[in-house]
């Protein structure tokens, strides 16, 4: 099975901004700032279900409300803009803007590790990379 830990420690939140896409008549208009200094973290939604598959989700501490985002291949990463764009379950689009390339890289690495676990139901490491 996947990771036995149900949560990963949150990333540093200073300067991380959450945006929501403004859409009018089915067309993207702009990004609207939703929350500042959010702390992105990952959790396994199936943590309390014995013998269930791992399903990592993303949440944002520091925001009163936030979208339900499953860690999947739809996320777009832009290292030039230090930005990640996500599609939430209800079809809305959200973005995280990071204050530095180090924050962006750390988040991207954790996201990709959770994506690997969601896809292959095993932890990302050299041995498992060779198997898949």
Structure write-up:
The protein is built from two helices and eight strands, in the order ββββββββαα. The protein has 132 residues and is of the alpha+beta class. It has one domain (17-126): Pleckstrin-homology domain (PH domain)/Phosphotyrosine-binding domain (PTB) (PH-domain like), CATH 2.30.29. A five-stranded antiparallel beta sheet has the order 2-1-8-7-6, with no helix packed on it. Strands 3-4-5 form a three-stranded antiparallel beta sheet, covered by helices on one side. The chain is globular and about 45 Å long.
Poorly predicted regions are none
Span of the ends, CA to CA = 14 Å
Please name the fourth-level CATH homologous superfamily: Pleckstrin-homology domain (PH domain)/Phosphotyrosine-binding domain (PTB)
CATH class categorisation: Mainly Beta
CATH architecture assignment name: Roll
- Main-sheet strand order equals 2-1-8-7-6
Helical coverage, percent range = 10-25%
Order of helices and strands: EEEEEEEEHH
Task: Tell me the total number of β-strands.
Answer: 8
Count helical runs: 2
Tally the structural domains: 1
What is the mean predicted local confidence, pLDDT?
Answer: 88
Structural shape? globular
């Amino acid at each position: 099975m996947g990771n036995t830990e149900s949560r990963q420690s949150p990333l540093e939140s200073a300067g991380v901004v959450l945006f929501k896409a403004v859409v009018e008549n089915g067309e993207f208009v702009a990004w609207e700032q939703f929350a500042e200094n959010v702390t992105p973290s990952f959790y396994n939604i199936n943590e309390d279900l014995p013998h269930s598959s791992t399903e990592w989700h993303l949440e944002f501490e520091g925001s009163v409300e936030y979208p339900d985002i499953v860690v999947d291949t739809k996320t777009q990463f832009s290292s030039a803009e230090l930005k990640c764009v996500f599609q939430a379950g209800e079809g809305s689009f959200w973005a995280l803007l990071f204050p530095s390339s180090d924050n962006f890289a750390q988040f991207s690495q954790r996201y990709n590790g959770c994506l690997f676990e969601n896809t292959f139901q095993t932890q990302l490491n050299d041995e498992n990379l060779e198997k898949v």
